[in-house]
Automatic annotation (TrEMBL):
It is found in: Cell outer membrane. CDD domains: gram_neg_porins (cd00342). It comes from the Bacteria. One of its GO terms (cellular component) is cell outer membrane. It holds the Pfam family Porin_4. This is Porin. Residues 8-345 form the Porin domain.
Length: 382
């Protein structure tokens, strides 16, 4: 159960906000495990892991009632590696989220700061990687559609609607913060609809970048700094999905497509190589077709699985196809603590540029066309 603390109970930084209608919630999640991979850079691998399913984080979330259904809100969220204590997201203090804004009970919320895009907000929860049933290691190849939050955006203005009888929508615009208005900016839109057991969603994300500036420091200006998936002048991602829940079971399907223009490389973080993996043409494309299912055997024990077929065109005649399978069993020891066993397998039809199969987050690509990873771990929420 999350611990809601009055501001007066925190450090003096927040003391002036302590009013009867104001509160700050301290929350977090710790995901730690042991992972075995059959081939990482040509060798078998055992490693202690943080965030195999859900990234470890802690945060502060606050709200002040301004009257008339209007609230001042903020979120500050830090990502970290539980195994060494280092901050994530290029060593940012609040790299996962950092925003402030106004929320209306009638009209929705407008927030400003470092935030998620609309594909993450609306479509990702229908995918396996965007939930607690698959997570980081189950991302589509290279997290090409950003459903696993590999990129978060600076300088972002976001609108999120209220719930209109199950229908919600929103959008973002992330400023370049430079005189080159259209360089290193991003924008997105998304929507979802829920009725009974049916949930449908769609999202669109667009990025513009000077490929020579993508490796800027996190402190530099721009919508995207410190982390990048593709060195590309233009990236457009769109997709849609549907989930249906019947009794203890939920089944779903998600389709996404990412189109790259003026594309030169995939980052070493995403490709699992010590150097950036080169793209051979000015354009590239990924199409992902995912089917997923989960079933609650008991209130404490759940099973989940997903299969994703990814069709890629990397330019220069490189057209690999990826088959990725993720399976998970999870047992809740309490409402806040659970243990899980997860297995992931990927097969790539060819080795483009010598790049073998690569499951997200392992750190090294396979030297062969297959890669298998098995993780046993636990999560604690507070």
């Amino acid at each position: 159960m999350k611990k809601t603390l009055m501001v007066a109970a925190l450090t003096g930084v927040f003391a002036t906000a302590a009013h009867a209608q104001s509160s700050v919630t301290l929350y977090g999640l710790i995901d730690a495990g042991i992972t075995y991979a059959n081939n990482a850079g040509g060798h078998s691998l055992w490693k202690a892991t943080s965030g195999t399913v859900n990234g470890s984080r802690w945060g502060l979330r606050g709200s002040e009632d301004l009257g008339g259904g209007l609230h001042a809100i903020f979120t500050l969220e830090n990502g970290f590696n539980i195994m060494n204590g280092n901050s994530g997201q290029s060593s940012r203090m609040f790299g996962r989220q950092a925003f402030v804004g106004l929320a209306s009970d009638q009209y929705g919320a407008v927030t400003l700061g470092r935030q998620y895009d609309s594909v993450v907000d609306y479509l990702a929860p229908l995918s396996n990687t965007g939930t607690q049933y698959g997570g980081t290691i189950a991302a589509h190849p290279f997290d090409n559609d950003n459903l696993n939050n590999s990129i978060r955006f600076n300088n972002t203005v976001k609108y999120s609607s209220v719930n209109y009888a199950g229908f919600k929508f929103g959008g973002t615009y992330s400023f370049s913060n430079s005189t080159e208005f259209a360089n290193n900016r991003a924008y997105s839109v998304g929507a979802s609809y829920n009725w009974g057991g049916l949930n449908v969603a769609a999202g669109y994300l667009h990025l513009n970048n000077d490929v020579n500036n993508l490796q800027n420091l996190a402190s530099n200006s721009g919508a995207q700094t410190g982390e990048w998936t593709f060195a590309a002048g233009r990236q457009s991602t769109f997709g849609g999905g549907v989930n249906y829940t019947f009794g203890p079971a939920t089944a779903g399907f998600v389709y996404t497509q990412t189109q790259l223009g003026n594309a030169t490389a995939i980052s070493s973080t995403q490709s699992g190589r010590s150097s950036n993996f080169g793209l051979n043409g000015n354009s590239a494309r990924f199409q992902n077709f995912e089917g997923n299912v989960r079933y609650a055997l008991t209130p404490a024990l759940s099973l989940a699985g997903a299969y994703t077929y990814t069709r890629a065109n990397l330019g220069g005649g490189e057209n690999p196809n990826y088959n990725t399978v993720a399976l998970q069993s999870d047992y809740a020891l309490s409402k806040r603590t659970d243990v899980y066993l997860q297995g992931d397998w990927q097969h790539v039809s060819s080795n483009p540029g010598g790049l073998g199969a690569y499951l997200n987050g392992l750190g090294s690509a396979s030297t062969r066309q297959d890669q298998v990873a098995v993780t046993v771990g636990m999560r604690h929420r507070f």
